[in-house]
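Training component of the fellowship. As part of building independent skills, the fellow (R.M.) carried out the full modelling exercise for a liganded target. The chosen ligand was magnesium ion. The inputs are recorded below so that the supervisory panel can assess the work.
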Amino acid sequence: MEQKKLDLVLGLQWGDEGKGKVVDVLTPSYKMVARFQGGPNAGHSLVFDGDSFVLHTVPSGIFREGTVNVIGNGVVIDPVILMEEIDAIEKRGVDVSKKLVISKRAHLILPTHRSLDAASESAMGKGKIGSTLKGIGPAYADKTGRYGLRVGDILQEDFAALYQAHKERHLQLLDQYPPFESPFNFDEYEQKWFQAVEQLKRFPFIDSEVYVNEAIEAGVPILAEGAQGSLLDIDFGTYPFVTSSNTMSAGVCTGLGIAPSRVGKVYGIFKAYCTRVGSGPFPTELFDEDGEKLRAIGHEYGATTGRPRRTGWLDMVALKYAVMMNGVTDLIMMKSDVLDSFDTIKVAVAYEENGKKTDRFPYDGGKNVTPVYKEFPGWKSSLCELRKYEDFPQAFKDYIAYIEAETKCRISIVSVGPDRDATVIR
Ligand code: GDP
Ligand code: IMO
Ligand code: MG
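Fellow's submitted model of the complex:
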């Protein structure tokens, strides 16, 4: 018998592809949106009604009527950041308590996880990951090390004692590090943390794996929302310059508790160029005027940390790898309008290393490769106001056709501006 399925949205590059916008645009066709990995390292921007909003832990379906939003077991939660986010959403008139459920199995980020993140980054000096300092790595390390505290533990009578035991173990670990500057006031944060934990109790803590599976079986249309990007995947990204979860499509199975046979459409999102925040290989990175121009026009500054994003040309080697690894069924191209004024647009079609050419994404993420570029003439006109594929300039249609031919995948949505409405669905 044919299995009922959920659909999935994820990023194909190093994050910030525009997942928030796409989930918000697609949500009217779904009744449930579920996050399956990552934590407040994510910054998902939504722009509508002349206003913008950045979500960190709450799924991007929260602003649409009639949608339940699920924070799945694969997510790590900082109660302070989550409660601040919920308060800000409620100020916009959304009754979040009617629309948000949280997995009991999601892990908690403790204040000491944030300290450990800062200590570790400081100790690594120039070799640092460039983490968001939200405690993501240490929280996931505790999860796989079988030390973690979970959302369900909040309801236990001895929660404060459990917390204390974890804190003490973390303080012993912190003693091993050279002195470092804490980016936050620990005592203040710890106090806010306990207040936020109390406030969180007004939301249902549930067995989300059962909830989601029953909903799939009942025919509820569900969209799973990825965070970060494929090249930040802990197994297949540019290790060690990655995040600490499986960001690729496989992560939805463990992060929500669904079987592989339950995955339907896989929407793979990519920018018409590339960006990266933090350290690590980035073969097509630009250090010239074009790079500056991409950053300025694309407003390429981190939605979570405000850091300037590194910018570069589209990388077909990396994109094809991500399409393959995720089993992408539909491509979505974002920020095409950012390229409007460029005379020439480049795409890396292969890498060269030690005189050898390859179109395979390398083990080390292309640390020492030189990209081989194919050039495209720019379309030199504004895409922002266009809403039909037929109205696109021919040079832009050629760019789209080239990417489709290379990836063997159809681009079914093209985004031409940050607003919800600036979207062309083919
Ligand atoms: P996410 O983390 O994948 O959700 O992406 P971010 O929100 O971190 O970064 C994407 C940025 O690009 C946000 O500021 C969006 O408002 C903006 N954006 C999304 N789509 C488009 C687009 O098609 N054109 C332009 N110019 N901006 C876009
Ligand atoms: P969204 O969901 C871009 C990067 C950090 C760093 C590395 C590890 O908005 O696309 P971490 O704090 O996870 O330990 O940092 O991963 N990173 C992101 N880059 N977008 C994100 O999320 C990111 N989340 C983490 O910059 O290089
Ligand atoms: Mg982001």
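The panel noted the following from the submitted structure. The chain has eleven helices and 20 strands. The mean pLDDT is 97.
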